[in-house]
Amino acid sequence: MNEKSIDIQLAVELSEGSLIANMKFANNSNSDMHLDKQTICIDNKTRRKIFNIVDEDNTEVGYTGAYVYRDVVPQDYIKLKSGEIIESRITLDEVYKLSKGHKYSIQYSVFHPTYKDKSGFTPFESNKVEIVYK
């Protein structure tokens, strides 16, 4: 999978006191792409560290959510047709050790398992977003 064929846009917002990451995965290729449902958080839940988050002192913020170890199988993927976009959202303060009153730099950054390739991974990265958690 060409890493440029999936464009990942991240927007972070404060909503009802929580820090919410909204992600859009766009297929910019001319062919269908297959995305791992867990890696893109299709059900709005994380199962491993998928964000790089640092505070204003450039200290990495710890991930406190679940870790799920699994064998990735073809049924774990969703097909994204050329030109299609799929969205997901994560409540960051539920799965990362964030403190109100701090400024954070946030980026979706993960190794995505390659479809039907047991040993392959593609780096996926979004834009970086800076926000003050109030």
SSE topology:
Elements: E1 6-15, E2 18-27, E3 33-36, E4 51-55, E5 77-80, E6 85-91, H1 92-95, E7 102-113, E8 121-133
Antiparallel strand pairs: 1-2, 2-6, 3-5, 4-7, 7-8
Can you put this structure into words, describing what you see?
The protein contains 1 helix and 8 strands. Strand 7 (102-113) and strand 8 form a beta hairpin. The mean pLDDT is 93. It starts with 5 loop residues before the first strand and ends with a strand. With 134 residues, the protein is mainly beta. The strands form 3 sheets. It has a 3-stranded antiparallel β-sheet. The chain has a 3-stranded antiparallel β-sheet with strand order 4-7-8, with no helix packed on it. Strands 3-5 form a two-stranded antiparallel ribbon. 3% of the residues lie in helices and 49% in strands. It has a single domain, classed as Immunoglobulin-like. The longest helix has 4 residues, at 92-95.
CATH class: Mainly Beta
As residue ranges, the low-confidence spans are none
Helix content: under 10%
The largest sheet, given as strand count, sense and whether it forms a barrel, is: 3 strands, antiparallel
Overall form: globular
Rounded mean pLDDT is 93
From the alpha-carbon coordinates, what is the Rg to the nearest angstrom?
A: 15 Å
Structural class of the secondary structure composition? mainly beta
What is the first-to-last residue Cα distance? 39 Å
Protein name: Intracellular proteinase inhibitor BsuPI domain-containing protein
